[in-house]
Write a structure and sequence with these properties.
By secondary structure, this protein is an alpha+beta fold. Helix content is about 30%, strand content about 25%. The protein has five helices and eight strands; from the N terminus they run H-E-E-E-H-H-E-H-E-H-E-E-E. It has an eight-stranded mixed beta sheet. Strand 1 and strand 2 (about 45-55) form a beta hairpin. Helix 1 packs across helix 3 (about 85-95) and helix 1 (about 10-20) runs parallel beside helix 5.
Length: about 180
């Protein structure tokens, strides 16, 4: 599939990312709301709402987010790491609120095993199995630019899957893979 169209020039994206990272505004204020706007391509559902309000994570919103990222093969949800929506929010904010498509969130062990039989993209000890990973794409942003943004945040693992047209981000240790 390739990278798809880029949002502006690569320099603009990198400049946006670095200004967001370095901005003192990222020291979140108590009254701030952190909001996500996501679309799950498999369930056709949207997640539109705040997951952080008044200086803390909203437990009800995190429960809704966990259900939104459920294994679409089994319809089972798992408690998602609260740092994951925070990471995606930081990316979405850096992209000026761009629309984000979700391809995968939580995966049950059996779903992951079945995937491993078909593709190398499924890691044996995937962070999807423990609610710490999400696979995403942004139509207006090239995959390499999206990966560059995610890597610049230095918040976990980042992989690019160009042929499948998505990037993987997780809240595990920092690592990088793919081209």
């Amino acid at each position: 599939m390739g990278d798809g169209p880029a949002l502006g020039r690569r320099g603009l994206l990198l400049g946006l990312a670095s200004s967001i990272i370095c901005a003192p505004a990222l020291a979140y204020t108590k009254g701030e709301h952190r909001v996500l706007h996501l679309y799950n391509i498999h369930t056709k559902e949207r997640f539109d709402g705040a997951f952080w309000s008044n200086g803390r994570f909203d437990p009800s919103a995190l429960t809704r987010f966990s259900f939104f990222l459920r294994d679409h093969h089994t319809n089972r949800a798992y408690r998602i790491d609260p740092e994951l929506p925070d990471l995606v929010h930081e990316m979405q904010t850096s992209l000026g609120g761009a629309h984000i498509d979700v391809l995968s969130g939580y995966r049950e062990p059996e779903t992951n095993k079945q995937g491993r039989r078909k593709s190398r993209r499924y890691a044996k000890n995937s962070y999807h199995l423990v609610g710490k990973a999400i696979d995403i794409r942004v139509a207006e942003v090239g995959l390499k630019d999206l990966r560059t943004l995610a890597m610049s945040l230095e918040r976990g693992g980042v992989g690019i899957y160009s042929r499948a047209n998505y990037i993987h981000v997780d809240t595990g240790p920092m690592r990088r893979w793919g081209r």
